[in-house]
Amino acid sequence: MGKVLPALTDGLRGFIDRQHLFFVATAPLAGGHVNLSPKGMDSFRVLGPSTVGYADSVGSGNETSAHVLQNGRITFMFCAFEGSPLILRLYGTGRTVLPGSPEWTTLSPRFPTRPGLRQLIVAELDRVQTSCGFGIPHFSYEGERDELTAWAERKGAEALQTYQVTKNRVSIDGLPTALGVDPA
User: Fold this and answer.
1) DSSP states of 59-95
2) Measuring CA to CA, which residue among 71, 128, 74, 118 is closest to residue 97?
3) Where are the domains of the chain?
4) Can you give the pLDDT at residue 1?
5) Contacts of 122 (CB under 8 A, 6+ apart)
6) What pLDDT digit, counting tens, does each position of 80-118 carry?
7) Cβ–Cβ contacts within 10 Å for residue 83, how many?
8) What is the pLDDT at residue 156?
9) Element (H, E) at 124
10) Would the pTM of this model clear 0.85, i.e. be above it?
11) How far is residue 120's CA from residue 95's CA, in Å, rounded to a whole number?
12) Going by DSSP bridges, is the β-strand pair 51-57/22-26 parallel, antiparallel, or unpaired?
């Protein structure tokens, strides 16, 4: 059954490496909308026993960035859809790392590069929790979708920048994202 651990084990790192899909959840401190997003595209990386992150692409919103900027709370969930049942939840404090920042220079080589990559979301974990996953159905992985990357390639760098300024600087609840904060 379930266990609570202070950090990721080698076995859990291997489990994460085999997953094609994960979920990220964040929420504002008071009121507002809870955000729960599925992620894929080989974007998640274990950076240390209690540090993880993922490469985040331009999308229709930027809720995760807004919520971690406001309060840092973040949860990741992985489910075993193939093989032995398991659910893994990672709880921690997140932050956004933007292109051009000193931390970007250090971290970005550990992540895949693709058109439309807007930021890294990095989290320091304070709780690693497993549960049985007995109720999760089996699914077979068929491959990654290419629509997001193709869309970003068609738009081009300048149009993507404009898109982010108009669509990704505030959350649906009006909170600023890391893209909407003056770095000075």
Assistant:
1) -S--HHHHHHHHT-EEEEEEE-SSSS--EEEEEEEEE
2) 118
3) 3-178
4) 65
5) 47, 51, 52, 53, 94, 95, 96, 97, 103, 107
6) 999 999 999 999 999 999 999 999 999 999 999 999 999
7) 9
8) 94
9) strand 117-131
10) yes
11) 8
12) unpaired
Across the strands, what pairs with 78?
88
- Secondary structure of residue 22 in the 3-state scheme: strand
Residue 184's pLDDT band, with cuts at 50, 70 and 90, is very low
Amino acid sitting at position 99: P
**How crowded is residue 11: how many other Cβ atoms within 10 Å of its Cβ?**
10
* Rounded Cα–Cα distance for residues 56 and 16 (Å): 17
Q: Report the SS3 class of residue 19.
A: coil
Token pair for 89: 């939840």
pLDDT tens per residue, range 122-133: 999 999 999 999
The mean of the pLDDT values for the chain is 95
Structural class in CATH, domain 3-178: mainly beta
pLDDT at 180: 72
